[in-house]
């Protein structure tokens, strides 16, 4: 199984411990300062409700002993799920290859489509 992340999906696979402002433009630094740091800081889209929705969901997950997003991600990697990132998205957003989780590969959309055509399951985030 492989997962292809583009634009906002890239925040899922950025490692908060490896993020850097080194060699970034002023725009890229400003963008980094207003975007989520790693998967646990991601909002819930329309259901975020100024953070209340996310806090509620996290409590519900805790009550049902559901793993955090980071634990899900690490479990998927251990089970052999491959995570790919859109090269164009990474470049536009000013991210550096070393800012992502271990095992993350940056490829073109065309390369991912070749892989997806030969795969039983493909996910695009």
TrEMBL record:
Question: What does UniProt list as this organism's lineage?
Answer: unclassified sequences, metagenomes, ecological metagenomes
Native species of this protein? bioreactor metagenome
Protein name, entry field: Sulfur carrier protein DsrE2
InterPro entries per record: DsrE2-like (IPR032836), DsrEFH-like (IPR027396)
UniProt cross-references to Gene3D superfamilies, sorted A to Z: DsrEFH-like
């Amino acid at each position: 199984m492989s997962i292809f992340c583009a634009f906002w999906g890239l925040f899922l696979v950025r490692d908060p411990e490896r993020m850097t402002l080194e060699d970034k433009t002023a725009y890229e630094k400003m963008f980094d300062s207003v975007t989520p740091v790693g998967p646990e800081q991601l909002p819930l889209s329309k259901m975020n409700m100024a953070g209340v929705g996310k806090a509620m969901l996290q409590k519900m997950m805790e009550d049902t002993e559901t793993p955090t997003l980071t634990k899900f991600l690490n479990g998927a990697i251990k089970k052999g799920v491959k995570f790919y990132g859109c090269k164009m998205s990474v470049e536009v957003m000013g991210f550096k290859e070393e800012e992502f989780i271990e095992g993350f590969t940056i490829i073109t959309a065309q390369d991912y489509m070749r892989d997806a055509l030969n795969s039983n399951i493909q996910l695009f985030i």
